[in-house]
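Input for the complex:
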Amino acid sequence: MHIGDLAAAAGVTIKAVRYYESQGLLKPRREPNGYRTYSAEDVVVVREVKALLSLGLTAEQTYPFIECLRAGNDRADVCPASLTAYRTRIAEVDRWIAELTELRAKLADLLTDAENWRTKV
Amino acid sequence: MHIGDLAAAAGVTIKAVRYYESQGLLKPRREPNGYRTYSAEDVVVVREVKALLSLGLTAEQTYPFIECLRAGNDRADVCPASLTAYRTRIAEVDRWIAELTELRAKLADLLTDAENWRTKV
DNA sequence: CTTGACCTTGACCCTGGGGGCAGGGTTTAG
DNA sequence: CTAAACCCTGCCCCCAGGGTCAAGGTCAAG
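Predicted:
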């Protein structure tokens, strides 16, 4: 299959597929005319990458999952490295939420302050 | 004062000062040799921009605050436009927190799932 | 006068995950 | 034969600057 077929089958854009390749996540063969050729397995890989990116992982962080798939597993997240990646990401998200919560409080304080200052004057 | 003095006084890098200028937040005069010259007021502006950026506003969103300062106010956030900007930003942060919370739950589910699958097999 | 230290200038490439466009080659259907 | 649909590479854009470069200005000491 060509890049357009893969993109359609996996639900991403052609641009995204080429980007994944530039990040080393795909290594398609080339036809004599230069067109990229993909296998059915690549569809699974692209779907997985898409799902992981939507969870906020970076392209680089999807590596262990793809390796897990390539190693012959049905699921990308059953390898120890994948579990570690999940836990790392959860910790990141928790830190983010904590920071944003703090930020929210700061903003609310500033707003209250500014409002009070206005009514005072 | 020159750009280095301004940067030191406001606690930012020279690079940041030039970036603020490129975003239209500063308009320094130039000496005959091309050096930028800043006033004491600019220190206040840069400090304000720095503070607002650290609250997650974009450079563009700091515009109303700077205008408020330039209009002669002691505080940048006492103008109506500033209050609106605060409220907008708070709403953004709230949306972010909600999304991240949802994401966190998804990740936790996936992790649990993957762990259970492993013990099952 | 010259050296060195320190300051400034503009200009270039980099970040992440692609979007958008240009300009061209290829393939397939009518 | 031609048009549509597909593919290729390559360049610029986002955001808030960071890093580095090559050049030139300024001021003091020697």
